[in-house]
Design goal:
This protein is α/β, with parallel strands linked by helices and 361 residues long. Helices cover 42% and strands 13% of the residues.
Length: 361
């Protein structure tokens, strides 16, 4: 017998969202981890808000919503608010009741800026690491460092001379003017983006297209591939090595450590500086073009070959950050804002990785 196509305008249910989410849903483990972190951060949140006035969006709900935006690759805050309006899974994770109104997208972004001022992303990242440390998931001896380009939210047409030599020609289309770059020599020393002044024109290899971008850096421990430090800097030829040295120096403890890396880190200055802080550089050797700073004193040990195998896992982190975590092209401007989102996104990656490790045991 054919069923009837009845459509009901109103909806009544005695089943809570908690009951509708399957017990084996992957977000359940992540939500438990996140709630533990947010309880630890509650005193920090209290210092960011005034004691009087109208209540704002709870920082715990705001962070859970941002986490969903990263996990489900929601490309804008407006789409995120739309999902929160009708998606029961999203409402359950964030902590909204079924009848609670959804926030305005502009209000949501302005409340997020308050967390930016409080450096909450780094605190959130540190608490995630603390949980990983409690579960003995982190290596304290063997690490890998690498960097990647993050395309800036700025177009090539915004990259203009800092001091124009001649008055600008009349614009044919104010919204999308015609610009001829042919034959024009443009460098970061003479030009700057009017959209994002901190973005730099850069390319990592010969033959690639130079883009306005930032550089993201991660320090990965080699046991389970978790990120133990993350930074964003202006793009330059030495930014990866400078950031790597900063992150290695910030590692706690006095135990001897190894640091894996690609050929970019095979320079005499970097190898000397890393060894000066008690770290053995297990970076890939230059085989052509110039003499390697790594010799047989390092490469003859079995640990060097192990580090070279493990260091490739860092590309999985960058792949996830760019394909899932919305970090291929940032939606924010300025090194501080881009760095905040990069740190938060790497913390979300650690949550996903910790959840997968928990399911394997």
């Amino acid at each position: 017998m054919r069923g009837t196509d009845d459509q009901q305008a109103t909806f009544f249910s005695y089943v809570s969202p908690e009951q509708r989410v399957p017990q084996e849903h992957p977000l359940r483990v992540i939500r438990e981890l996140v709630n533990t972190v947010l309880r630890e951060l509650s005193p920090r949140f209290a210092t960011l808000y005034a004691t009087e006035g109208r209540p704002s969006i709870a920082p715990e709900k705001l962070l859970r919503a941002l986490l969903l935006q990263v996990l489900y690759t929601v490309r804008s805050e407006r789409l995120l608010m739309e999902q929160l309006d009708y998606n029961l899974l999203f409402r359950w994770f964030v902590g909204l009741h079924i009848d609670d109104p959804v926030w305005d997208a502009t209000v949501f972004t302005k409340n997020r800026d308050r967390l930016l001022e409080g450096d909450v992303a780094q605190a959130f990242f540190d608490q995630i690491l603390a949980q990983a440390r409690e579960r003995q998931l982190l290596s304290t001896e063997h690490f890998t460092v690498d960097g990647t380009l993050i395309e800036a939210w700025a177009g090539q047409k915004s990259f203009k001379a800092k001091s124009p030599a001649e008055p600008a020609a009349p614009v044919d289309d104010p919204g999308n003017p015609t610009v001829d770059f042919h034959g024009e020599h443009r460098t970061n020393a003479t030009h700057q983006s009017t959209t994002d002044p901190e973005a730099r024109l850069y390319k990592k290899a010969a033959g690639q297209e130079a883009k306005l971008c930032y550089q993201g850096h991660v320090l990965m421990e080699n046991r389970h591939g978790l990120v133990v430090d993350a930074q964003v800097s202006e793009a330059s030829g030495t930014a990866e090595r400078d950031a790597a040295l900063d992150m290695v120096e910030a590692l706690p403890g006095e135990r001897h450590r190894t640091l894996g890396g690609d050929k970019l880190f095979d320079t005499h200055d970097f190898v000397r500086d890393v060894r000066a802080v008690g770290v053995t550089p297990h970076v890939a050797q230059h085989t052509t073009g110039r003499r390697s700073a790594i010799d047989r004193r390092t490469t003859r040990h079995p640990g060097y070959a192990i580090s070279q195998r493990c260091r490739k896992r860092v590309e999985e982190i960058f792949g996830w950050l760019k394909t899932v975590g919305l970090m291929r092209k940032t939606r924010h401007r300025g090194c501080e804002r881009v760095g905040w989102m990069f740190t938060f996104t790497t913390a979300v990656y650690n949550l996903v990785r910790m959840r997968n490790l928990a399911m394997q045991t």
